[in-house]
Amino acid sequence: MIRKPDVFFSEYGERHGIGYPLQFLLVTVAVSIVPLLGVAVVLNSTSPLSAVFAAAFVVGIGFGLWVGIVLEGLLAHAIASLFGASGATQTLEAYAFPSLVRYGLWWFPIVNIVLGCYGLYLQIKGLSAFHDISMGNAAIAAVVAMVLVFGVLALVMPLVAAVLAAFVLDMGAQT
Predict the structure, then answer these.
(1) What is the pLDDT of residues 90-139, one digit of tens each?
(2) Position 173 pLDDT exceeds 60
(3) What is the domain extent for residue 98?
(4) Which of 11, 51, 64, 129 sits between 20 and 30 A of 163, alpha carbons compared?
(5) % of residues, the chain, pLDDT over 70
C-alpha cells in the first residue's frame, strides 16, 4: 500500500464488518502512543502514583485520538456520500489502512509532517478507489472532514483541560 497505493486499493477485494477497521485503528493508535507512554512512565518513575496517572493520561489521549479518527472517517463518509459514495465500512477501511503512516510514526521530527501528508494522500486514494469517486471529490471529503474534526477538537480541548485543571488543581480555592 505504501509503495503502490493504486495497486493495493484497486485489488483489495476483502469485505469485513465495521468492527475490522475500528479494531485496526485502535491497534494503530495503541502502537502510536507507546513512545509517549514510555516517556511518561519513565519521567515519573520516582513516584509510582504519578507514573500511573501519567500512563492513564496518555491512554486517554490515545482514546481521544481514536475517537477523532473515527469521527473524521464518518464525517468524510457523510461528505463523500454527497458525491455517490456508499458503505461506511469501506470509508473506515480507507481511513484505517493508511492510519499507521499518518499517525503511527509521529515521533520522528520533520519526517512526521511528510508522513502525515502522505497518509492523508493514501486516505484520499482509498476513498476514491473504494467508492469509485474522483480524487478531487475524495480530497474535498477528506480535507473538509479533517479540518472540521480537528478544528473543533482544537477549540474544545482547551476548555476541557481548563475544567479538569480547575478540579484537579483546586484552582480558586479559598485558603
Answers:
(1) 999 989 989 888 887 777 788 888 998 999 999 999 999 989 999 999 99
(2) no
(3) 5-168
(4) 51
(5) 94
Contact 85, 91 (CB under 8 A): yes
Q: Residues, the chain, total?
A: 175
Q: In which residue are the cell numbers 469521527 written? A: 71
**Scanning the structure block, which residue is given the C-alpha cell 489502512?**
97
Question: How many domains is the chain partitioned into structurally?
Answer: 1
Largest pairwise CA distance in the chain: 67
d(CA 78, CA 141): 8
Confirm whether 173 is domain-assigned: no
Residue 58 clears pLDDT 80, i.e. is over it: yes
Q: Identify whether 100 is part of a domain.
A: yes
* CA-to-CA separations, 142 to 120, 131, 160, 167, in angstroms, rounded: 8, 13, 26, 37
Tell me the three cell numbers of residue 169.
Answer: 488543581
Cβ contact 79:144 at 8 Å: yes
**125: in domain:** yes
Residue 115 near residue 101 (C-beta atoms within 8 A): yes
- Residue 117 is assigned to a structural domain of this protein: yes
Q: What is the pTM of this model?
A: 0.81
Looking from the CA of 25 toward its CB, the CA atoms found within 13 Å total 25
